[in-house]
Design goal:
With 414 residues, this protein is an alpha/beta fold. It has helices at residues 9-17, 21-30, 32-37, 39-46, 56-67, 95-118, 120-130, 155-161, 178-191, 250-259, 278-286, 303-311, 332-342, 383-393; strands spanning 49-53, 76-80, 137-141, 198-202, 233-238, 266-271, 293-302, 319-329, 347-360, 367-379. A 10-stranded mixed beta sheet has the order 1-2-3-4-5-6-7-8-9-10.
Length: 414
């Protein structure tokens, strides 16, 4: 009877796939041969994509991983901002325990401030990306997003030293600036001449509202656009409070960057404020050539302001997602009709109004409109029929209300 060690690597890899992390660790500690045969599954499961807080502790870990044999297996790096102010009093932490926690936090924060003042974070990011030759994706996000797990470097350290119930990792700490992490990380990837295929920025609308806009790195040489010339996916949360200021035309930074991404196929734009979005949307879409997918989230625009940039993409655009978009002029029926007649979409996702009920305020002639949101999705060859059903079924008085009665239930996303 063959022993476990004698099994071929393919079977060991299949076994390792079904093991929980503790058992996989024990298997790899058994002997050098099992360590080697299970190494592929170990790297795929735990190092293909890694998450790091933007702190001295976490960036040290990033550098060490990059310098080890694990570095070449990392495909994606996620970076998030810092934690919020700790709340000790409300949780009953007093006396010696409180002093110990505060001392640890003070030392931790001093390390991070010193790291940024001296530019050590810049050096560490450059060193790390030089040793991540197969990294193809970079993500920037905050902890308000529920799927940012406790496996990120930095969060586990807080749980050990401070306590999970004390520091609120769902709120960003005001000292950290996402724009700094964004700029330095992209510069490091550019210096390493990595083949970056996707960049995603996801932040909550409560974060970065009073921060500088994102600063995109410029190529060291005008013709050296290697790193981002391969970019195929770019999703970004836009702080439109900074997008059109005369003294700091950050919108130009976006368009210049997009001009260096000839292979970009998916553009996702999520606005942190509903207002003043039309010009930004128009210019960013105009700067993106040959898009096949477009995502638009949170805008307050007219029907024409929404559709004109989209219709210019008619020759190539095949997938469209619209979410949280409010029309102040025009109607959704007209939007669907124009998409039906002028586009060649094969996939569409729309956040629609499921129901509208007029509610009169007591003693006044004012009417409030209650609406429930429903995600509708269609992916198939009969797009014109689907859009025609939307056009015929949604009846509205203000362009933002209506009824979905009569639409095939299979189009609803549950």
């Amino acid at each position: 009877m063959s022993s476990l060690v004698e099994l071929p690597s393919e079977l060991i890899d299949a076994i390792a796939t079904s093991l929980p992390s503790s058992d996989l660790l024990n298997l790899r500690l058994t002997c050098a041969e099992l360590d080697a045969k299970s190494f592929h599954q170990f790297t795929e499961g735990y190092f293909r994509a890694k998450q790091f807080m933007y702190s001295r502790y976490a960036l040290d870990a990033l550098v060490e991983i990059s310098k080890s044999r694990l570095g070449r297996y990392v495909r994606a790096v996620s970076l998030g901002p810092e934690f919020s102010q700790p709340d000790l009093t409300d949780r009953g932490h007093m006396g010696e325990a409180r002093n110990r926690i505060l001392e640890w936090l003070k030392e931790y924060e001093n390390d991070n401030r010193q790291m940024e003042r001296t530019g050590l974070d810049n050096l560490m990011l450059h060193e790390a990306f030089q040793n991540l030759p197969n990294c193809e994706g970079i993500e920037f996000r905050d902890y308000s997003l529920a799927d940012y797990g406790t496996d990120s470097f930095g969060e586990a350290s807080f749980n050990r030293n401070v306590g999970q119930d004390i520091v609120n990792l769902r709120e960003p700490y005001p000292f950290r600036s996402l724009s700094r992490a964004f700029t330095l990380t992209l510069e490091a990837a550019q210096a390493a001449r990595l083949w970056i295929k996707w960049v995603i920025v996801q932040v909550a609308d409560t974060y970065e509202l009073c921060r500088p806009a994102l600063e995109f790195p410029r190529p060291p040489k005008e013709l050296d656009t290697f790193t981002f010339s391969h970019l195929r996916v770019f999703k970004v949360s836009i702080n439109n409070g900074y997008a059109q200021t005369a003294e700091d035309d950050s919108l130009r930074r976006y368009t210049d960057f997009l001009a260096r991404t000839p292979q970009l196929r998916l553009l996702g734009l999520s606005f942190l404020s509903y207002y003043d979005t039309a010009e930004i949307f128009n210019r960013l879409v105009s700067a993106s050539k040959n898009l096949t997918e477009l995502e638009v989230i949170s805008m307050y625009v007219s029907e024409d302001e929404l559709l004109e940039p989209i219709l210019r993409l008619a020759p190539t655009l095949r997938s469209l997602r619209i979410s949280g978009v409010i029309l102040h002029t025009g109607t959704w029926q007209s939007v669907y009709g124009r998409l039906r007649d002028d586009m060649r979409l094969t996939k569409i996702e729309i956040e629609c109004v499921e129901d509208v009920n007029p509610i009169s305020y007591l003693g006044t002639d004012k009417v409030a409109r209650y609406s429930g949101q429903t995600e509708i999705c269609y992916d198939g060859p009969d797009m014109k029929h689907f859009l025609n059903s939307l056009t015929n079924c949604i009846v509205s008085t203000d362009g933002n209300g209506g009824s979905l009665t009569g639409i095939d239930p299979r189009y609803f996303v549950v």
